[in-house]
Amino acid sequence: MPTVNAYAATSATGPLGPVTIERRDLGPHDVKIDIQFCGICHSDIHTVRGEWGDRPWPLAPGHEIAGVVSAVGAAVTKHAVGDRVGVGCLVDSCRECANCKAGLEQYCSRGIQTYGSVDRDGTITQGGYSTQVVVTEDFVLRIPDGISLDAAAPLLCAGITLYSPLRHWNAGPGRRVAIVGLGGLGHMGVKLAHALGAEVTVLSQSLKKESDGRRLGADHYYATGDPATFEQLAESFDLIINTVSASVDVNAYLGLLDVNGTLVNVGAPPQPLPVAAFSLIPRRRSFAGSMIGGIPETQEMLDFCAEHGIGADIEVIPAERINEAFERVLASDVRYRFVIDASTIG
Hints:
Elements: E1 3-9, E2 16-22, E3 30-39, H1 42-48, E4 65-72, E5 84-87, E6 90-92, H2 98-101, E7 112-113, E8 132-136, E9 141-142, H3 149-152, H4 158-168, E10 176-180, H5 184-196, E11 199-204, H6 210-216, E12 220-223, H7 228-232, E13 237-242, H8 250-254, E14 257-265, E15 286-289, H9 295-308, E16 314-317, H10 322-330, E17 337-341
EC number: 1.1.1.2
Cofactor: Zn(2+)
Domain Enoyl reductase (ER): 11-340
C-alpha cells in the first residue's frame, strides 16, 4: 500500500503533526485524488480530542476535501483524470438498505466515514489533512467550474449540513428562517437560505457580526444576549436551524417558532439539550436533528452553489498552522472557515 504525507493526531491530548499514512491500492472502481484543499470542521476538533469517543491513533481528520483526479480504476465510469472533485463526510455505505437506495446514505447504519471508521478491508479510514486520498467512485462529487476549489472544500460538510435541512423543511419564498450562530455552518446557512428565497434572520450572541450577516444575505439580525430579543421575536419563525456546537436554551428558541414550526439542531454539543414538553405541545412545534446529505443531494447542493455563485468565506492556511487554527475555531476567531492548502503538507 502506498504512503502519503499527512497531518494527524497521535493522541486525544497532543497536537497534530506531520506523519505518513497508508492509502489503499487503486481498485477497479476507485478514484485517486490529489488533494489541493481541505476545510477544518468543528467535528475534526471534537473527534481528535476524544469528545465523541475513543479513536484509533494516529488519525488524520478532514472531510471537506477538494482536489483533482490523478488516476482511476479500470471500471470507473463517473470520473476521469483531471476532473475537479470533492469528498465529504462519507466514503462508502452498505448500498443495500432502504436509506442507501433512497439516496440517503448519511443515514445508513453501516456508513463508512471519511476518517476514523473501519473500512471494508478492515483498515481505519484517514481523512483529508493529507496529500492524496483513494475513494470509491460513487462517493466522489463533481465540483462545478463555477466554484474555486478552496471555497468549494467547506461545501462538502458545512454547505450540505445546512442545505439538507433547508430543503427538507421547505425553506423558500414566504418562509421565515432563522439561523442561530454566524460561524462556519451559520454563514453557509444564511447564504443558502437567502438564495432559496426565504426571509432570513440571524440570531447571534451579539451584534458584532451584523454587517457580515447582512452582506451574506440576512434580512434581519438580532442579539440573543439581549433577553428582549426572545420577547420581541416570539412566534416569529417557521424554521430555526441551530448551528451552535455548545449548550443553548432550547426552550427559549422553541418559543420563537410559530404554529407548526421546527427547530433543527445541526450543531453537535457533547452535552444533552433538555426540552420541556410544554415548549412543544401548545403550538405543535417540533425539535429535530439533521446530518449532512446523501450523495445525490450533495451533488445537487454543489450545482446550486455554482448556479448562485456561492462558496464559503475562507481563510487559507499552511498545514503548520493547523493547531493554531483549532484554537481559533474554539475562540470563534475565523470568518468563516479555515481551509488547509494541501501543497504545504510535507
